[in-house]
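Quick entry between incubations.
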Amino acid sequence: EAGVAQSPRYKIIEKRQSVAFWCNPISGHATLYWYQQILGQGPKLLIQFQNNGVVDDSQLPKDRFSAERLKGVDSTLKIQPAKLEDSAVYLCASSLAGGSETQYFGPGTRLLVL
Amino acid sequence: AQKVTQAQTEISVVEKEDVTLDCVYETRDTTYYLFWYKQPPSGELVFLIRRNSFDEQNEISGRYSWNFQKSTSSFNFTITASQVVDSAVYFCALTRPGFQKLVFGTGTRLLVSP
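Done. Structure below.
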């Protein structure tokens, strides 16, 4: 069974530029999550989708971050404009359902904002 | 609010030593779920175990074992006869039923030298 796919794996941009990340969850998984992991910290949830609806986006900086999950399958996360403090690893995860179901993570996208 | 504390920032051991990673959690819920994930240098979070609050039985999987004690709000992880491939950052995480996010600790970096 294929795991969670993410692209790109690495991205370097300058501040104020925009960037987008893509995630394809495990087939059949209804719930998709985007986490931000700053160096030396645990992952922090940015947004959670159940099918194509948003369940939790309370920690998403909505003035610059946006995410969508069209057709309830793959998802994109966008940052516009990027700031230096957005440098982090962006992890996508999926689970069969939400809440206590095990979340399976992709390899992540390492973003460096200069 | 839920919180996970991993007080050990970094642990260094020599191959074949046993090592225990501590995890202390805080929650007001009677039903909750605890997880351990491994993050090798490649960056992907690898699921190790999921345990619900009603199951206090210790679990063993090969060289890995977990000790869940509700009385002390701890869910510790022991690696027996450590190997170089065990070198990684290990995260403990907590969630509750329903569409709730995973709350991660700050992780413990394990270095196993030959």
